[in-house]
Amino acid sequence: MPFQTGSPTADPAERTSSRWASLVVLCAGALMTILDGSIVTVAMPAIQGDLGFSSPGLAWVVNAYLIPFGGLLLLAGRLGDLTGRRRMFSAGLVVFTAASVLCGVATSQAALIAARALQGVGGAMTSAVVLGMVIALFPDPREQAKAIAVFSAVGAAGGALGTFLGGALTQALDWHWIFLINLPIRVVAWVAALRILAPDRGAGLGRGADYPGAALVTGALMMTVYAIVGAGERAAGGTAALAALSLALFVAFTLRQARAARPLLRLRLFRSRLLTGANGVQILMVATMFGFQYIGALYIQRVLEFGELRTGLAFLPAPVLIGVLMLGLSARTIGRFGPYRVLLAGLALITAGMGLLSRVPVEGSYAADVLPPMLLLAAGFAAAMPAVTGLAMSGVREEDAGLASGLFNTTQVVGGSLGLAGVRHAPSLVGNFPNSTEE
């Protein structure tokens, strides 16, 4: 049954208003999850000083969130198709909110890491089904392009906006508030979800509850993210062994899905070159942007010696530009030139921005050396992200929308993990910064 909102007997204007109200709710839920992935970046030194983390241990404030988040997205997306996407979305809000409170009151390393892992679970439940719900809400191509532009603007700007809010809250209050701020916002989002999002019927667990397959793919994805994010803290042989184990689990999962009577993942989904190609491009795009955010924050804080609030303000032009371009031009540009050309133009801008960033001098300045490549990256991402999102979801059947949404979000996590791992463990990038805390 397609995801619907509003009464079937309501007039078209009322149904249209209800759909856009539903989009606002979905974007609000997605925004907080995306913010949480980046809001800790600027607060990391404060967390380290307060709880006494070592540099390798501090990485687990991020890793503990990414591993369950990335590992459970595919499963949560499929369960959303089977049990109802609104139900999965609302339950994810509850789990994430409870975990945020636990993070905010944590007074030990173990408590914070455990709460961050629970946040990852709630984030996966919420994020996995959102894109599929957006696609189902707006079947008309023109409206769908506008809705994807809005959703992509929220997602793309959210990462950079999280850096700003992390700096502002940490300096004005303390690091605990980067988590506690989720409580009132998430409660409002949860109430709005129950009141605005129409209930939808899933296909039923009996039509796709392949529990052995779910265990295999969840284990494989978690192992993949763990292997990537922890690559710098273990010997090369250990990383290779984890990668081999992850590959073996993926192979076992594929064989299981090919033979299962009710597979968790229909392998025919990957016959779509648009789906597989768009997800592959997204991995590289997100790796680039996450790498820039991490290394940019280090450069601004350690080389330019900006405080937390100034660092957050330094990143603010990026989400502003992304929002303006996506909301004002994205849908019209894609409608006129097509998603392929817009995607290629966006990738060209991202490449140019990274080229400028590679030439930043040791004694540079924000206005001359950081802001220009940041704006190029923001413009490129604003062009490329809606295009690649539309390409990834085009042609996906309604009954597979949650699964395809979970897959798309999974590649985002894998890309982000690759980008962070690449720059975090590159001695020429991190080890030579002044005031480095590497041990």
UniProtKB/TrEMBL annotation:
Where is the Major facilitator superfamily (MFS) profile domain positioned along the sequence? 22-439
Q: Which residues cross the membrane?
A: 20-46, 58-76, 88-111, 117-138, 150-169, 175-197, 209-229, 235-255, 276-300, 312-330, 342-362, 374-393
Has keyword Cell membrane? yes
Q: State the Gene Ontology terms under molecular function.
A: transmembrane transporter activity
- Lipid bilayer topology: Multi-pass membrane protein
What's one GO-annotated cellular component?
plasma membrane
Tell me the Gene Ontology biological-process terms attached to this UniProt entry.
Answer: response to antibiotic
Q: What protein name does the entry list?
A: MFS transporter
| Lineage per the UniProt record | Bacteria, Bacillati, Actinomycetota, Actinomycetes, Kitasatosporales
What keywords are annotated for this sequence in UniProt? Antibiotic resistance, Cell membrane, Membrane, Transmembrane, Transmembrane helix, Transport
Location relative to the cell: Cell membrane
